[in-house]
Write a structure and sequence with these properties.
Elements: E1 5-9, E2 12-16, H1 22-39, H2 44-53, H3 60-69, H4 74-84
Antiparallel strand pairs: 1-2
InterPro entries: DUF6471 (IPR045526)
Domain DUF6471: 25-89
Protein name: DUF6471 domain-containing protein
Length: 93
Amino acid sequence: MHKGKCIVYDGVCDEWSANVADTEWEAKVKGLLKAELKRRNVSYAQLVEKLAAVGVVDSEPNIRNKLSRGKFTAVFLVQCLEAIGATSLRLAE
C-alpha cells in the first residue's frame, strides 16, 4: 500500500505527490521515455531515424540534450512514443 500516488513501471512504484517540484516532474517524464527506449532497445541514433520516418527531423545531439535535461514538450514525447511503436503508457496509483 502506497501513501501517495505513484507511477508504476514494470511493477515498480515511483511515488510522488501533488507538490513535487518541476525538476522532479522533469525527471519522471525523462524516465518514462528513457524506459520505453531501453525496453525496445532503441538508441538515440535509431530514434533519430524512427522520428524521421514519421516526419520529425531532429539531430542526435539535440535529442540527447532534451532527454538529459528532461525538458521537452508533450508533443515531442508523443512523437517519440509513436516513432518507437509504443501504443500506451501505464500511469497508475
